[in-house]
Amino acid sequence: MTLNIDLLVNLVYIVSAVLFVFGLKMLGSPATARKGNLLSSLGMLIAIVITLVNEIKLPWENIVAGLIVGSLIGAFAARKVEMTGMPELVALFNGFGGASSLLVGLAAVFVAGNTTFTNITIILSILIGGVTLTGSFIAYGKLSERLPSKAIQFSGQQIFNGVLVLAIIVSAVMFCLQPAVDSPWLIAVIVLSLVFGIMITIPIGGADMPVVIALLNSYSGLAACAAGFVLNNNLLIVSGSLVGASGLILTNIMCKAMNRSLNNVLFSGFGAAKVSSAKIEGEVKPINPDDAYLILEAAQNVCIVPGYGMAVAQAQHVVRELSDHLESNGCEVSFAIHPVAGRMPGHMNVLLAEANVPYDQLVEMDEINPRMSNMDVAIVIGANDVVNPAANEDEGSPLYGMPVINVTEARTVFVLKRSMGSGFSGVDNPLFFGDNTRMLFGDAKESISHIVGEFKS
Amino acid sequence: MEAVYLSFILMLSIFLGLELIAKVPATLHTPLMSGSNAISGITVVGALTAANQGSSDVALWLGTAAVALATINVVGGYMVTDRMLAMFKKKD
């Protein structure tokens, strides 16, 4: 009988895995994505139900309490979160996933007669889980600005980290040689992995956080994989590696979009130390909303380049209104999205979707750049580093080599900006001093509302 | 042999994952992250098993905490992904 239930459980796990795969496949197009997510959640549901049936002897009070508490917190967070706060939420969720794998690994230590292989996977589960947990919490702190977003570096950091890694390896080996529930080496592995998670995240500057969240996303998947090895559970391994692969791909895309290697992102403390050598020449030419309106009214092709600043100013809704007015005026409007605009991969697309901008109006950087010279006006709203021409021209700039949206090729560039500060990365932007650049100072939302008002009258 | 068999599954699913995810357009990368986050909540299945495996009370409580944490991921992840995807509209 037990054999039959075991067989049934594993067959259901296969169905779950297939549903996860189809769910991800349907994420290939915005038209089918929502259904895909639903399929994926169905796969999760049947996996949980069959596991509950299999583990019928479970202490119900505990499990039901755990499920209810988790569901309530999750549902509450999912409903309450603002779209601007999505990166923080994902960072937190990554952390919980890591914590969960850590605890599963720890609980498995209490099983008598583990093989050495199982003990190694237990250590891996604890290690990856622990690093994901504290790393994600630091990322959360930096993104929500509860912690300083600047890279934190101190002398001897590399040596300290080296010693830390060595200590983790020694403790892990010692535990595997003499596994015991009360082994001091086990406690050492837990503490050291938590410290390591902090150490690898603090030297990373705020501007690089999109990469870090993607990487931690990958870790949370790998942690689930490790837990799967501990419990001999195929479904955990398959799902964990799907997530791990997803995080890896996103990390890679982000790194490419910044023209930097992962190593450079993780260890260089970008934006903390470097100073550009080039002197910026030219003068800032301000414009008022009334004149901006006159130029826009005559424009045939307009490209809007949004950045995180747009979301902070809550300007996405008026931007959509502006785009509607321009279109009914016979103008073609597109939104140019840089891969690292916003604070996580694809963040800007979600913010614009929230403001009802249709997704087929959003154009990726590689597609918009060849068309930029046809643009009458490029409107830069709350973006800075992703339109910085220094990335193309100034070899001394820390941004040099990063692919950017070439707004300078448009006939006129409007830059909406609160004041003359530098961007998230702290690098100066020669765009503001360009010949065809007009600075529209003030709150982006107010400036655009003003222009929209002119269109209405 | 068990180790080899599990590693085999690991390798194949990583390659499958790379193939699948590479086809997701940039516009859906945020929902992809929150959605895959929900999938990584599959640890809940492991947590349920782990809670039942040990004879110790400590293991039970560790498992219970793991169940709660992973459920946050599952429920929160799927719900927030659905909320986001519902906003994506085509031009009419």
Features:
heterodimer, A: 457 residues, alpha/beta, Rossmann fold, 3 domains, six-stranded parallel β-sheet, 17 helices, 6 strands, globular, B: 92 residues, mainly alpha, 79% helix
Please explain how this structure is put together:
The complex is a heterodimer of chains A (457) and B (92). With 457 residues, chain A is an alpha/beta fold. Chain A has helices at 2-26, 30-54, 60-80, 86-109, 116-143, 157-177, 184-201, 209-231, 234-257, 262-267, 289-298, 308-312, 316-328, 347-354, 365-368, 390-393, 444-456, and strands spanning 301-306, 332-337, 362-364, 377-381, 412-417, 437-441. Chain A folds into three domains: 1-80; 86-273, no CATH class; 289-456, Rossmann fold (3-Layer(aba) Sandwich), CATH 3.40.50. A six-stranded parallel β-sheet of chain A has the order 3-2-1-4-5-6. In chain A, helix 14 (347-354) links the parallel strand 2 and strand 3 (362-364). Chain A starts with a helix and ends with a helix. Chain B has a domain at 28-85. Chain B is flat, with a radius of gyration of 17 Å. At the A-B interface, helix 1, helix 2, helix 3, helix 4 and helix 8 of A face helix 1, helix 2, helix 3 and helix 4 of B.
Write the layout of secondary structure elements.
The complex is a heterodimer of chains A (about 450) and B (about 90).
Chain A: H1 2-26, H2 30-54, H3 60-80, H4 86-109, H5 116-143, H6 157-177, H7 184-201, H8 209-231, H9 234-257, H10 262-267, H11 289-298, E1 301-306, H12 308-312, H13 316-328, E2 332-337, H14 347-354, E3 362-364, H15 365-368, E4 377-381, H16 390-393, E5 412-417, E6 437-441, H17 444-456
Parallel strand pairs in A: 1-2, 1-4, 2-3, 4-5, 5-6
Chain B: H1 2-22, H2 29-40, H3 43-53, H4 57-85
Helix pairs in contact in B: 2-4, 3-4
